[in-house]
Amino acid sequence: MNFFYLQSLLDGALNTVILSLLTFLFGGLAGAIIALCRISPNWIISITSSLYIQLIQGIPLLVLMGLAFFGPNLLGMGDVSALGAATISMSIYSSAYLGEIWRGCIESVARPQWEAAECLGLSRFQRMTRVIAPQAFRIAIPPTVGFMVQIVKNTSIASLVVGYAELTYNAKLINNTTFEPFLYFGIAGVFYFLVCFPLSHFSRVMERKLNVANR
What is the pTM of this model? Predict the structure, then answer.
């Protein structure tokens, strides 16, 4: 195996991790806001956030990347880097799904918990932060980690539109030179596994530790 090719795959794996972390950071922050908007007592805010989710979930990620990469230039706003376009589009895409996941987790907290917190005279903010959020957090761990794994694998789409040199992109370039697809795509698959398996294992450990099923 050529050391240069292995180094290229390692660089691609690092770029995959960077894009995944940026996506989850910005997508998670936006998703948390959207989840809170979805349960807002203000029907305008709730409906607007619901329409946002439906809109984003109805558009393929590939299309969002194309809009994020080519759109600013066409509007005279200058060029966007491959990493920037991939991060923006994947964060927007993730925010819709994470927002809906977390909204469901919040609303799955038993109604008596909401009522008991209200009877204690807690404000809406206090009810959410002290009573509802800790319980929703336990419920949210498995689907959130599962979506994080999907984020890691969806980074491979970035190479198709914006040319971001992530793991799959580099493996494809190497294969075009060596014509050894089984070897280098196989190594890429191992790298994906090494990134995704710890996330899945962490989810199972946290489920057992927090005893999600019985709380």
Answer: 0.90
Q: Which two tokens stand for residue 62?
A: 């590939």
Token pair belonging to 94: 């993730």
Q: Which domains does the chain have, with CATH numbers?
A: 3-214 (1.10.3720.10)
- Per-residue model confidence as pLDDT tens digits over 6-37: 999 999 999 999 999 999 999 999 999 999 99
**SS3 letters for the chain?**
CCHHHHHHHHHHHHHHHHHHHHHHHHHHHHHHHHHHHHCCCCHHHHHHHHHHHHHHHCCCHHHHHHHHHHHHHHCCCCCCCHHHHHHHHHHHHHHHHHHHHHHHHHHCCCHHHHHHHHHCCCCHHHHHHHHHHHHHHHHHHHHHHHHHHHHHHHHHHHHHHCCCCCHHHHHHHHHHHHCCHHHHHHHHHHHHHHHHHHHHHHHHHHHHHHCHHHC
Q: What angle do CA 85, 146, 102 make, to 5 degrees?
A: 80
103 contacts: CB under 8 Å, gap ≥ 6: 34, 35, 38, 39
pLDDT per residue as tens digits for the range 181-195: 999 999 999 999 999
